[in-house]
């Protein structure tokens, strides 16, 4: 069976502000056989681009390195302006196990890449998420706190030596976070109310940071155009906190606050399993062996041979 | 994107009664590159084997022909004994569109195969299901009525001329039904009651033949080992009658009869879409674009290129 890894590097550069640079990155992303550029998003306000790569572990790791090298050549962080927090030309490089690959293998990929980026490019890095060497570094936001401008000082603090590299940033490319993480599912639930406080209260109950489900991040928002409140979530590990479980909790809480769910949306991509969990949950499927019973997994096996 | 067709030929031969013949068929099933033998079931009581082939339309069609030829060489229907109804050495050959293939293309496959089986093997055939030339031939059971022994007489009736071939069976291989059909999902729902009459009543309400859902066949059974009643279904087109809709109807009817659903089971394989429908239904997903939002479809696209 084919081994497949997803990689979603974030660059501090946008097509809107630097089209030639953006195109150069796109070209590099397609430069290694066995790795495809699956998706590319650019945001002028954030002055940031997010690529989605998919391919064999070896090919993806090589492309990630080449992209970090090209981004270093293209971007001077001293001159970077954008709304999104950032600390490096290549700001973050997550590896996500996708097919027949373990999290451990992705952790190894992140470590090899960090070592090589230091040795060949002199770009230091933090290992984050499942690659983190200490609990404080699991969270990307904690690693990035202080941003590019505050990093020289932060790296001198005893607990903030980079995992690879010396206690100073690359002068123009800054520092990069690299790590393995499970696939993330962006899932929003819409409520039949214009009271955003209800969405905020529900978000507080369900999210990990205030005592809720371990693998759920949540916020309450107002959808201004529709005049309704939304619970917006990042499900950071659907194997730990499943979509139907969080949905049923929101349903119960919405009822508690005198409203109900009118709909939901999946933002971007999700692995089939995150959604097949709904079939198992709601149909009360007994002994459901999804890898053997869902045709498409066999197709992938067959095609990947 | 790779075009893929599934083909599930049924042979009047079992490993239990003729191991050498069965092995010869297995060998033929694997004889064309681009077509794999996905699954092989054999039943000694039925004296029947069911193969599942998967591959490109051209490869699958060629393998289906070679199998029909080999089955003709191996099987003399005049000497065949088995519990299952049958009319030919190769009893039935369904083609199921699986990826990037239309039902119409599968209908064309069935017609080319029927023509070739007559021209090269002198085996006549009926076109059934979506390939049927008249409504009475859609149903396989109607085509097969009379079985091998009654076929010589049946073919002389004005309305039962074969779609390919003359009004007489092949002396040893009989006649074959060939047709395109949607993927079938076998889905059973278990009730918290030992009263099989409730399962029978529910089955009667939901199945097409007594006025229920168009693409649902259903029967009520007793699961003797568990002491509970089961509604056993063949969902013959989940795009027409979806799993969550039939499940919710059973739930309402079970409640009407004073019981409830304790679980369900998926028997064998199902296409992911049949189960993703549950995510869409129960999570009230808005604007769900499964082909673009479910990762695995992109993997299949990528691997199939």
From TrEMBL, chains A, B:
GO biological process per UniProt: L-histidine catabolic process to glutamate and formamide; L-histidine catabolic process to glutamate and formate
Recorded superkingdom: Bacteria
Domain Formiminotransferase N-terminal subdomain: 3-182
Subcellular location: Cytoplasm
Domain named Formiminotransferase C-terminal subdomain: residues: 183-298
Gene3D superfamilies assigned: Formiminotransferase, C-terminal subdomain, Formiminotransferase, N-terminal subdomain
GO CC field: cytoplasm
Keywords associated with the record: Cytoplasm, Folate-binding, Histidine metabolism, Transferase
One example GO MF annotation: glutamate formimidoyltransferase activity
Protein's name in the database: glutamate formimidoyltransferase
Organism: Succiniclasticum ruminis
């Amino acid at each position: 069976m084919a081994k497949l890894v997803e990689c979603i590097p974030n660059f501090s550069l946008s097509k809107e502000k630097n089209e030639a640079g953006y195109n150069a990155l796109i070209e590099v992303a397609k430069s290694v056989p066995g790795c495809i550029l699956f998706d590319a998003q650019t945001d002028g306000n954030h002055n940031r681009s997010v690529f989605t790569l998919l391919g064999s572990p070896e090919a993806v790791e090589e492309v990630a390195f080449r992209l970090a090298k090209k981004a270093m050549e293209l971007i001077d962080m001293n001159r970077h302006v954008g709304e999104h927090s950032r600390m490096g030309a290549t700001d973050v490089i997550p590896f996500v196990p996708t097919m027949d690959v373990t999290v451990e293998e992705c952790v190894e990929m992140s470590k090899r890449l960090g070592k090589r980026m230091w040795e060949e490019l002199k770009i230091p890095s933090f290992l984050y998420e499942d690659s983190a060497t200490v609990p404080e570094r699991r969270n990307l936001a904690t690693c990035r706190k202080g941003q590019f401008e505050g990093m020289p000082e932060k790296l001198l603090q005893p607990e903030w030596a980079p995992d690879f590299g010396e206690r100073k940033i690359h002068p123009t490319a800054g520092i990069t976070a690299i790590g393995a993480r499970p696939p993330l599912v962006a899932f929003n639930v819409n409520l039949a109310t214009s009271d955003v406080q209800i969405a905020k209260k529900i978000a507080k109950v369900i999210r990990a940071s205030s005592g809720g489900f371990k693998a759920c991040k949540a916020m309450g928002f107002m959808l201004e155009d529709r005049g309704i409140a939304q619970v917006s979530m990042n499900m950071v590990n659907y194997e730990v906190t499943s979509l139907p479980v969080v949905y049923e909790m929101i349903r119960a809480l919405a009822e508690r606050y005198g409203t109900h769910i009118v709909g939901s949306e999946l933002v971007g991509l999700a692995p089939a399993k995150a959604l097949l969990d709904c079939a198992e949950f709601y149909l009360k499927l007994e002994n459901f062996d999804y890898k053997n019973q869902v045709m498409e997994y066999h197709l992938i096996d067959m095609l990947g041979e």
